[in-house]
Structure formats: structure tokens, C-alpha cells
Amino acid sequence: MKLLRPLNPNGHIPTLQDGDLVLWESLAINLYLARRYDRGLWPKTIEDEGRAFQWSIWAMTELEEPLLTVLSNRVFYPEAQRDAKKADDAAARFTGPLGVLNGALKGGSYLLGDTFTVADLNVASVLTWAPPAGLDLGAAPNAQAWLGRCTARPALARAMAA
User: In the Cβ-directed half-sphere of 118, how many Cα atoms lie within 13 Å?
Assistant: First the structure.
């Protein structure tokens, strides 16, 4: 971690250096890369840009905490450090944001319409932790089908193989 300190004062990853620009925080990095090197991920209208920011921030503020609390207390922490009550409480809280996402996807293939964008990338990157956490997406069929579309993309397969 010491090597990262000159680039990221938190000493964490991810950290991106693109020329003279240094960015840290995955959300900021994804938004920057999607806009800077647009390969179809950046929204086409200013309204959709606003929605991409909205969904990206929403994933970090509403979806991520309960999901990671469940995952930590059911999978990541050693058995002796796991708190079943925290996991169960977080699983119950997770249903709220999952319902919001499921409703938003009613009648649409992706968050901003028929095209996969950085909004889908950012939200899906959080929601992919649900199955390993033991969280069932079956009660949210729109979100479940959307996550399947997002994770079946050839670009993800290429990234995972790299």
C-alpha cells in the first residue's frame, strides 16, 4: 500500500493515472473513463447524463452498504467475527433498494433505455455481490433479468479472462 500513497492519499485501490490526471474511487474512475474514452458507455443526452450520475451515486449510497454488510457477515469475516443479526437486518434493508431498481427496470432493458451505459456498469458492479452473499433476487424479476444481461456481455467475459 505504501507505493499508492503518492497517488492516492488513502493508500487504497483502485487508483487511476491517465497522463497527469490521478483519480481514485471506482465510481469517479468509471464515470471519467466512460466519458473520456467513450466507446458507447457514455449517455447521449444531458438528461441521461443526469440519470447516469443519479444511478451511480444511488448504487453507492443505497445499495452497497446493506449488500456488503450481508456479504461480510455471511462470507468474508471469519466465523467467530460474523454477526448474524447484522446480516439479517442488512438483508431486510437490501429489499428496499432492490425494489427501487426492479421498478425502474419495468419495461426497459437497461437503466437508461435500450442501451447498456455507465449507469448499468456502476449499478451492476455492486449488485453482482448479491448472489455470493446469499441474497435471492427472485422477488425482483426485472432486476434479476437485467443483472443477467449485464453480466452476459462479451466485454465482461473478456475482462474476466484478462
Answer: 28
Q: What CA–CA distance (Å, rounded) separates 154 from 160? A: 10
Q: How many domains does the chain have?
A: 2
Q: Is the separation of the CB atoms in 126 and 64 below 8 Å?
A: yes
pTM: 0.91
Q: Would you list the DSSP string of the chain? A: -GGGTTT-TT--S-EEEETTEEEESHHHHHHHHHHHT-SS-S-SSHHHHHHHHHHHHHIIIIIHHHHHHHHIIIIIS-GGG--HHHHHHHHHHHHHHHHHHHHHTTT-SBTTBSS--HHHHHHHHHHTTHHHHT---TT-HHHHHHHHHHHT-HHHHHHHH-
Q: What is the CA radius of gyration of the chain?
A: 17
pLDDT digits (tens, 9 = 90+) for 4-57: 567 888 887 889 999 999 999 899 999 999 999 988 999 999 999 999 999 999
Q: Is residue 41 part of a domain?
A: no
Quote the domain boundaries for residue 95.
Answer: 46-158
